[in-house]
Amino acid sequence: MRLRFARLRLWHWPVPALLLAGLVVFTLGLEENWLASATMRFVPVLVAVVAIGGWIALSRTRARWWPGLLGRLEEHTDAVDAVSARHIGLWIALAAALSLYLELMIIRWHSSCFQVFAYFKNVSLLACFLGLGIGYAYSGKRPLTTPLVLPALAVQFAVLYALRFTSLQVQLNNPISEEQTLGLETGHTFRQLAIVYGFLIVLFVFNTLCFVPLGHLAGRFMLRARRLIAYSWNLVGSLAGIALFTGLSFLWAPPAVWLLLGAAGVMAFLWRGSRPMLIPSLASVAVALAVLSVSFDPTLIDTYSPYQIISCKMMPEEPARLQVNHVYYQRMIDLSGRTRLDYFRGKDAAFHYNFPYWLMPAPKDVLVVGAGTGNDVAAGLRNGAQHEDAVEIDPAILRYGRRLHPEQPYSDERVHPIINDARTFMRHTDKRYDLIVYGLLDSHTLLSTVSNVRLDSFIYTVEALREARALLKDDGMLALTFCMLSDATAKKFYLMVREAFDGQEPRVFRAHYDGGYTYLDGPYVTHLDLPPEIAQREITATLRESPVRADVSTDDWPFLYMPLRQYPVSYVLMVSVLLVVSLLLVRQLMPAAGRGFSPVSFFLGAGFMLVETKGITELGLTFGNTWQVIAVVIAGILLMAFLANLLRMRIKRVNMALNYGLLAGVLVLGFLLPERTFGSMPPVLAKVARTALLTLPMFFSGLAFSSELAAFVGVDIALAWNMLGSMAGGLIEYNSMYFGFRKLYLFALGFYALAFAAVLVRRLVKRTTATAQDAGR
Questions:
Q1: Residue among 310, 302, 307, 326 nearest 246 (CA)
Q2: How far is residue 109 CA from its own chain's centroid?
Q3: Of 117, 274, 629, 716, which shows the fewest CB atoms inside 10 Å?
Q4: For 432-444, b where at least 16 C-beta lie within 10 A, e where not — what string?
Q5: pLDDT at 342
Q6: Distance between CA atoms of 701 and 710, rounded to whole angstroms?
Q7: Phi, psi at residue 48, to the nearest 5°?
Q8: Can you list the pairs that 9-12 forms with residues at least 24 positions away whose Cβ atoms lie under 8 Å?
């Protein structure tokens, strides 16, 4: 019997070569001092030899084990194909729900293991898109490879969890030189960048392979139903997948629960006729769970909040310390005078936290923005604040403060803890404050997977600072402290605060704690009389006269950690590497039938991704950048696609010129309409108008895709190229780092214009062909 080993198409050179290259670079980066040893210089060579030898051994012996594996996969395929057509819609929904759930799970897992993925979640997202797109292209092919999903996911969970506690954690540097990162050094040397890129390539390729079977499974079910009905069930399942993972986020469920529920979803497809494949799947999950149960650092207590992993480090005779995504975040300090904490230079901590209250003694009403575990709140209580509103977005951080802070500030009746996005709270409160204190509020993670906006980005914009200024009483003061990563960052904050206060110069002081500078502004600051010990810390004149260039952050360009608005060339390098890897994988893995390019589906996917990114960003800004709002927004975007598909099922024909015209009109209106238009409306009407403006493009785009799916291409080709188009849109999204989010509409307009042009070209070709056939008769 001649075996067709190319059925899984993993034996040709691109896949093993990419994995091997990344593995060698990864080995180079395990320990900094390895290269100092002549013996250890041969370790990467040894790893390469072992990897190549293992691959050759598997290739030569595949005639022994491949037929058995292939037979099991064929049995699984037969079992899936035997599913009753009466319930095919539910199976489509389950397959789509599983795909989206596992996508969200793996993106969250990557960012929970390594901080670099908390800053670059879209790398994981794009790998999922690529895998699903390739999988959809396989829809009509045999065999299904669903039984390989759980072992592959288990490997990701076990290996990444173990590597989290190695020196690789600190050697995966930030590859983007134009953007700074708190707690993550920017890679400049060839070796530093090689380590990052090698690891990114390995994980990108492996994650892509994990999601190919999921797209294949969903697409195979969809081929058995009418196209639009199948697509509707796919969208329903996607909504269910979002709802399930959102529920786990609400419960602060740990990764073991994520994996168990994902395993249960896969088992639903293996149970019918594929029971022999249950044993290796269950065994792999059991091994992964066993690894997750091991505590490699017994001083750490991990909590998975809806946003990130929070680790509390408990050491004898030291203050409890929080880490966010494995990077230092905050200490819970007792500055009440009952203990001495010379260990961490307590005198500087005391100056930093008490400083605003030395200038404004016993304020009546205080707002603490980014209250964290309560250090700033405790300072207000010690200095006679009569009432404090303490706003913190992450409920896990607040809970740690309630339980472990030595001064117990959240137990005081004068304190009102508020779990919310600070920007949203400031927009909707009707209170005014004597003092607004910004804690050392900084983010170690992105707001969502589809954009480069960080969790704290919209807190530090000129518009946000103006909103804070509006909450000050007539003689109020704003005190903002931030960890300054460079002179340009310090100048950036100086310019933002000055612009927000209509040119009134802020007073700036060195905090000498966690690298912070404190900026003071407001009516109260105009008549400050500073004692000598405080005056010597002032650096206002230094910043005013500094020749360092910096650009202010705005709601359209909220990139706080980019001091200058410059084109991110290093991001282009990362995108180019991922694009080359993606093209190799598409060429290697996509079947010939799946290469029937659907330009309309591709361009619609790219445009939709860009519009979705802008929609999530601005709707989050409108309703609050909390995890609940972002989850609802993403679900709402899918709902718009579902409604568009439902409409297409109800009508026989869509006027594509009118539909694309309305789509372009809404995008142009969203690009040209000034922000002050919404500000002049009543609040409720403004929210409705903004929501309509941001979601209507998704409706018209969805209607165009459903029309393409209904009349011209098969569901496998349409979804495959739509997914790959979404990936292309995700790669283009980085342009927002220079042009801003408003300009994303121009890129989207370009893609939608290409989609409409492809429609016109197809019509022209069809008419030309028909004319030629008539002439031939």
A1: 307
A2: 11
A3: 629
A4: ebbbbbbbbbbbb
A5: 38
A6: 14
A7: -60, -45
A8: 9/588, 9/589, 9/591, 10/209, 11/59, 11/62, 12/588
Sign of CA dihedral 90, 699, 582, 284: negative
Half-sphere exposure of 526 (CA within 13 A, CB side): 8
Distance between CA 435 and CA 530 in Å, rounded?
A: 18
Q: Which residues partner with 414 through β-bridges? A: none
Backbone φ and ψ of 207, nearest 5°: -65, -35
Q: How many CB atoms lie within 10 A of CB 340?
A: 8
CB atoms within 10 A of CB 190: 8
Checking DSSP bridges between strand 507-510 and strand 516-521, what pairing results, if any?
Answer: antiparallel
Q: In whole angstroms, how far apart are CA 242 and each of 123, 237, 632, 636, 676?
A: 19, 9, 9, 11, 34
Write b or e for each residue in 85-97: b if 16 or more Cβ atoms lie within 10 A of its Cβ, otherwise e.
eeebbebbbbbbb
Distances (CA, A) of 665 to 70, 463, 603, 654, 671: 52, 27, 18, 17, 10
pLDDT recorded at residue 35? 41
How many of the other CB atoms lie within 10 Å of CB of 693? 18
Q: How many helices (H) and strands (E) does the chain have?
A: 28, 11
- Positions in the chain short of pLDDT 50: 1-11, 31-41, 338-346
273 three-class SS: coil
- What does the angle CA 691 – CA 693 – CA 697 come to, to the nearest 5 degrees? 110
Where do we find the tokens 């979601």? 695
What is the pairing mode between strands 387-392 and 472-483?
unpaired
Tell me which residue of 719, 741, 769, 774 sits closest to 218, measured CA to CA.
719
Contact indicator for 48, 42 with CB cutoff of 8 Å:
no
Nearest to 519 by CA among 487, 545, 543, 546: 543
Residue 160's alpha-carbon distances to 112, 288, 289, 352, in angstroms, are 9, 10, 13, 38
Task: Classify strands 415-419 and 387-392 as parallel, antiparallel or unpaired.
Answer: parallel
Residue 509 is predicted with a pLDDT of 94
Question: DSSP H helical segments within 223-270, as ranges?
Answer: 227-250, 255-270
DSSP-assigned letter for residue 179: S
H or E element, residue 544: helix 540-545
Report, in angstroms and rounded to the nearest whole number, the Rg of the chain calculated over CA atoms.
Answer: 28
CA distance 633 to 453: 16
Beta pairing partners, 300 = 313
How distant, in Å, are the alpha carbons of 76, 292, 432, 673, 693 from that of 285?
Answer: 19, 10, 54, 52, 45
Peptide bond into 406 cis (omega under 30): no
Task: Please state, in angstroms and rounded to a whole number, the distance separating the CA atoms of residues 88 and 377.
Answer: 56
Per the listing, tokens 């931030």 go with: 482
pLDDT at 216: 95
Q: How far does the chain reach from its first CA to its final CA, in angstroms?
A: 49
Residue 110 half-sphere exposure toward CB, CA atoms < 13 A: 29
Asked if residues 706 and 231 have their Cβ atoms less than 8 Å apart, the reply is yes
Per the CB < 8 A criterion, the answer to whether 175 and 187 are in contact is yes
Position of tokens 């073991």? 256
Strands 472-483 and 415-419: unpaired
- The pTM of the full predicted model, rounded to 2 decimals, is 0.90
At residue 241, the 3 state secondary structure works out as helix
Q: What is the pLDDT of residue 14?
A: 56
Look at residues 420, 499, 494, 416 and name the one whose alpha carbon lies nearest to residue 455: 420
**Smallest Cα–Cα separation from 10: which of 206, 276, 214?**
206
What is the structure's pLDDT at 33? 44
Determine phi and psi for 568, rounding to 5 degrees: -75, 80
- 367: nearest Cα among 289, 285, 456, 438: 438
Q: What pLDDT shows up at residue 40?
A: 43
Contacts of 544 (CB under 8 A, 6+ apart): 494, 505
Q: Which element (helix H / strand E) includes 510?
A: strand 507-510
**Which amino acid does the sequence have at 395?**
P
Q: How far apart are CA 633 and CA 630, in angstroms?
A: 5
